[in-house]
Amino acid sequence: MSPVDSIQTKPPADSHRNRQPWYAMVWRWHFYAGIVFAPLIIFLAITGGIYIYKPQIESILYKDLYYVETGDQKLSPSEQIANVKKHHPDAEITSYKPSFEANRTSEIEISKDGKELTVFVNPYNGDIVGDLNNNETFMEQMKNLHNGELWGGVVGNRLVELAACWAVILIITGIYLWWPRQRKSIFGTLIPRLRSWKGKRMFWRDLHAVLAVWLSVLLVIQLFSGLMWTEVWGSIAHRVEALSGEGSPVGDQPFEKDAFPKSTIPTKEVADVPWAAENLAVPASESRNSASLPVEKIIQIAKAKNVHPGYKIAFPEGKTGVYTVFLDPAEVYPDRPSPQAQQTLHIDQYDGKVLADYGWDDYGSLGKLISMGIAFHQGEFGPLNQLLMLALVIGIVAIVLSGIVMWWKRRPKGRLGAPSRPRNIKMLKSVAILILILGVFFPLVGLSLIFVWLLDRFILRRIPAIQRWMG
């Protein structure tokens, strides 16, 4: 994943840097992490690269559901919803997304027989255009492949997070190995030595190292923004943002602690809101002997609060539930607004009071930075952003494959060909401190290191054949 000078079993005797214990130990880390996580890193790069083009791909796959001929006047949302209830009498209406362009259908989500469906409605005549199972769309499957949910559930998600954490370490160790030290030429440092391409290891080394150095900043941005969605590191980021004390949601009056009754449910449990609003506590509607407001009234409130078109309205759950209006710019295509358009409203279902209004101006500095990183990660800044992410995907695959080729060319027959372990005990103690620091910063890395240590101490050391193969 990241640069490394070479993969060989015995460093050249005249190599100054390979005589340094630190270099040898970092090299060993880089080698093992690269070998273990290379397949998963390539898999994540490819699935992520496909997901970047979600708006364009879905507009082609589901054009018959998304688009209709324009008419003179749209039916009211209540009429559209009533028609869906007529066709699905046993279903529960869970959300409504108004048609945000003249030729777009309205989207009404329902829960029926344990399935979450999106019903597409012609807003001009109320006809049901069709429906999709939310969990079975092509891009939902691609997303769940990317985050590990589809092939591993909770374990898969943790493995994806672990791979991302180790990828950051691969970048750090790779830059240490690449650092020029005594080399003055830009060839082999900043420019590959292309004249050596004829199957020689030096070509693959330069492709691996130089390409990784040029892409290192983008790689770090992608990895850390991706970690924001993970369970362990993402939860830590949410807590750090909350502890920073910057930014608070506002309602129809200044937002204060306990100003409105709240549940203990975070907003992400009731709606797929932007990252910064995921842990916003859901307020509670004051139960009254009156009916809930019609969805038309909620749309009026959203317009008054200047919510960008393309928003979705999640319906109240129970007597104390609230209407949740939220805009995720990534879901608005082709007119994709910037991340600054993100907004989340919680509205009392009985009197229409805005209990929380959480938008870009309310985010703290960390929340804004992370939201921008996530938008960049998903290519939300337009075609150039998507092309840059696609180029990064191709670069990642090239970096990993070139590292594998280097290893394959240098490995001894019948052995793994890992770099030798340094014998400097004092240096190993220093490395142990560094391991501890990285294990604390990336908790899953710490757990993986403990697992590897236990595996090595109690199993691998007792099997001579494996020891000889690993070197």
Automatic annotation (TrEMBL):
Q: Could you tell me the keywords of this UniProt record?
A: Membrane, Transmembrane, Transmembrane helix
Chain segments annotated as transmembrane: 29-53, 159-179, 207-229, 387-408, 428-455
Q: Which residues form the signal peptide?
A: none
Check the record and name the Pfam families matching this protein.
PepSY, PepSY_TM
Superkingdom in the source lineage: Bacteria
Q: Where is the PepSY domain?
A: 74-131, 293-357
User: Any idea what this protein is called?
Assistant: Uncharacterized iron-regulated membrane protein
